[in-house]
Amino acid sequence: MTYRRIFAVLVTLLLLFTACTASELPERDNSVTTLTGVYEKTVLEMDERITYIRNMTLRDGKIYMYTTMIDGEERLASVVILDPADDSFTYENVPGMAYATVFAVGEEGYLFILSDHDDLQKKEGYILHSVADGTVVWEKRLDEFTDVGDRLSRMPSVVWKDGTWYIGAESTLLLVDNAGNLVKSHTLPADIFGVLETDGAVRVWGKGFCYAVGADGSLTEDAAWKDALAQMPENTETIYPGNGYDFYYNGGEELIGCEVGGESVPLMNWVNCGFMTNRIPEIAVVAPETIYIHDGENRILKFTGAPDREVEKTVIRVGYENSGTSNIEMAAVEFNGAQTEYQVICENYGEAEGHAAEMSGLDAAILRGETADLLLFRSMDEVAKYADKGLLADLYSLMDDEFSADDLFGSVREASEIGGKLYGLPRTFEISVFSAKTANLPDYDVWDVDAFLMTARNLPEGMRFSEDDSQESMTAMLGFMLSEWVDTETNTCRFGDGSFAAMLDYIASLPEKSQWKSSPEENPFAADKILLYGYAVNNYASYAMINSVFGGWNSGTVVGLPSSEGGACLIHSDQYYAVSAESGNKEGAMAFLNFLLSEESLIGRTERVRGMDALPALKSVMKAWEAVDGVYPYQIYTDRVGKYSGGGELTVQDNTGRPYVEVYAADFAEEFCEFLDTVPAYRTVPAEIQEIVMEEVTAFLGMGKTAESTADIVQSRVGLWLSEHE
User: Fold this and answer.
1) How many Å apart are CA 382 and CA 340, to the nearest integer?
2) Cα separation of the two ends of the chain
3) β-bridge pairing 290-294 and 309-311
4) Which letter, b or e, does each residue of 287-326 get, where b requires 16 or more Cβ atoms within 10 Å of its Cβ?
5) What letter would DSSP give residue 112?
6) Whether the Cβ atoms of residue 64 and residue 81 lie closer than 8 Å to each other
7) In this model, does residue 608 exceed pLDDT 80?
8) Quick one: which of 12, 306, 402, 523 has the fewest CB in 10 Å?
């Protein structure tokens, strides 16, 4: 970075944290907002026998889809043709294609790819079927053209042009003629994300590449398309060809139309259209103002562009950065439709631009005076950063009888508080703990680092403390235990008191690479081969696991991580919500936060519940979860680890002759909730401190330094960092 840029960033940060006070920020109208990207929805019902739809393809002005129908006890494959001219459906049955995984449309017929699992070789096969006029013209195995291994990492992508099928499978592009003969093949630099025909040309693309395919089958790098595709959000692997723009993609908050060499234009705003962003398996764009979407149900939704619309509601602006936030848009759709007082507007800050390029998008928004009412952060480090500058409100001061501190689990409050105030709150969380067989762990008044190390050094012969090589233990210490030596509330640390040096000596005594690993087919914890079982608890099943892994229900005890309080748990979350101190609508922000945390938002449809993999922050939601989850038992196998059966009406499989414990959520729900409410909790220390410790401990292990001198260096460096961040 040049000195000029460094100076610009420093000036920007100075302005951000000294000039942007609440009194100086511009007032914004929170009573009326204009909704952009609005489309009117029309529901097009399909044949009630249809079970699912795959591969919406736009060709010659019509939309083709592959589906299956249930006719009595028979499953029939069908090609559904939707004519946008009058929104009518026609159906073509295709014998023998009921389980196709890929479907493509050509001028003279269709190409299906069916899975063909080989049980003897434990290999997944794929068969290509060319179909015309309801009959199979030819069929060939995919591995006749290319070696696809045991299983494809993603489904092939197929298009047809001028008598040739273009098939992208893994990193191979195949050109196959109408008779099923291989014309040419190419090996691409990486896996192929898609093959599409647009502007009269076929293009194949993946991460970091895009090629145009010539009439002779040759490949030419298409720099303009490659650059346009690179502008999409990270991990976007699906694009939709259509009329009006070169291609379309789901930008998270809206459907984006992209003109190669030109601009990317936001078109259909998901929230403003009242559409759930998690339900977009297929899209066909007939025109920028006419879009068809399959939403996972037995229907097609037609969206027709409408004028921007003024809404007279109190506006709640929710701000966040970049991808991974689809649950916000989904919750906003539900919230906006459930009441008439508020309108949630989602604002993705993305990356900062111009002179603020070294800052986050949120920093740049604050500098512009455009801070949202409700903010999403990815860690408590971020919450603390903004709370320290007075930019966040204390949520405790905004609570009332409807949403009070008593509604939150105590462990969540403890791990989220800063100086007794609650500036950020996780929507969901998980906890990391140690458990042990009760009979194998001596009682300690305090389960602190000294007790932890004493236990490790005095194990019975033949027993291991944990999966114990030096690298894993160092990683665990940095991830779980640093809070024992660092107090970010008082900005103090105690690496020099001897306990940290003792931990270093213990880590150094372990082998660099463990020669002993447990097999997934055995339970070394029940067999007294390993004392401590470390696990991330994020649902009822995982709590049952830590209690049952030692051979029977409640055969173990939750020890927790070493702590001066007697064993604590570590709270993890990547979604912390905070209310801006500068918000003119704190009441509305709290209303939406309450909804985000609620049973309606987190649980909703009961079929989602069994698969939930994070704990809710509210006790009432946990109780609601129990009511649904508790209907079915968990079978936890006691002779192996990490294997439990759940979901749906549990049936005993052929291989469940193994011993297992069967428990219901209701059997231990009260105990579990009491644990979440009362267990001492802490959060990970700031990433910068972890980096300091990692650097010095790595030097200690690799350069022969003493534990005492390393502890002194860490004490000095971390102490300096803390003093600079008071």
Assistant:
1) 33
2) 27
3) unpaired
4) ebebbbbbbeebebbbbeeeeeeeeebbbbbbbbbeebbb
5) E
6) yes
7) no
8) 402
Amino acid identity for residue 48 in this structure: E
Per-residue pLDDT tens digits for 652-667: 344 456 777 888 888 8
Structure tokens at 704: 């022969």
Residues making up the chain, counted from first to last: 726
Pairing of strands 192-198, 182-187: unpaired
Q: Among 121, 212, 215, which residue's Cα sits nearest to residue 163?
A: 215
Q: Residue 289 to residues 42, 312, 708: CA-CA distances in angstroms?
A: 13, 25, 69
Token pair listed for 537: 């608890």
- The pair of structure tokens assigned to 573 is 């979350």
User: What are the DSSP E strand ranges found in 329-373?
Assistant: 342-348
Instruction: Compute how many other C-beta atoms are within 10 angstroms of the C-beta atom of residue 118.
Output: 10
How is residue 24 written in tokens?
A: 């100086």
- Detail the DSSP E strand segments found in 295-446: 299-305, 309-311, 314-320, 342-348, 374-377, 417-418, 421-422, 425-426, 428-437
Residue 82's Cα: distance from chain center in Å? 34
Of 439, 325, 311, 313, nearest to 377 by C-alpha is 325
CA atoms of 383 and 366, how far apart (whole Å): 14
CA distances from 51 to 47, 109, 129, 276, 606 (A): 9, 23, 22, 20, 20
The two structure tokens encoding residue 381:
């480090």
Name which of 86-100, 306-320, 397-411, 464-478 the model is least confident about.
Answer: 464-478
Query: Tens digits of per-residue pLDDT, 496-527?
Result: 999 999 988 888 887 776 555 555 567 888 88
Task: Express the helix, strand and coil content of the chain in percent, nearest 5 each.
Answer: 30, 35, 40
pLDDT tens sequence across 665-720? 888 899 999 999 999 888 888 888 989 998 998 888 887 789 999 999 999 999 99
Q: Is the pTM of this model over 0.85?
A: no
